[in-house]
Amino acid sequence: MSYNLDPNSEYALLQLLLYIFSFVTLVLIFLYIAAERPGEGKKKAEEEEE
After folding, report:
1. Does residue 10 contact residue 1 with C-beta atoms inside 8 Å?
2. Cα–Cα dist 26/18, whole Å
3. Which one of 9, 24, 26, 49 has the lowest number of neighbouring Cβ atoms within 10 Å?
4. Can you spell out the DSSP letters for 9-25?
5. Number of C-alpha atoms within 13 angstroms, CB side, residue 23?
6. Rounded to a whole number, what is the distance in angstroms from the first to the last CA of the chain?
7. 20 with 13: CB under 8 angstroms?
8. What is the reported pTM?
9. pLDDT at 40 over 70
10. What is the pLDDT of residue 16?
11. Spatial contact of 5 and 13, defined as CB atoms under 8 Å apart
């Protein structure tokens, strides 16, 4: 890197970026699964109609 960091600081920065990337990825996966699930409200509405 061009910021003249020592190897330990560079490793810590890369590790921090990796943690942030993995956290964002997990949030996106959770949101995708939540969006793909059939809505619980639809099931309750169908049960009330019967």
Report:
1. yes
2. 12
3. 49
4. HHHHHHHHHHHHHHHHH
5. 6
6. 65
7. no
8. 0.61
9. no
10. 97
11. yes
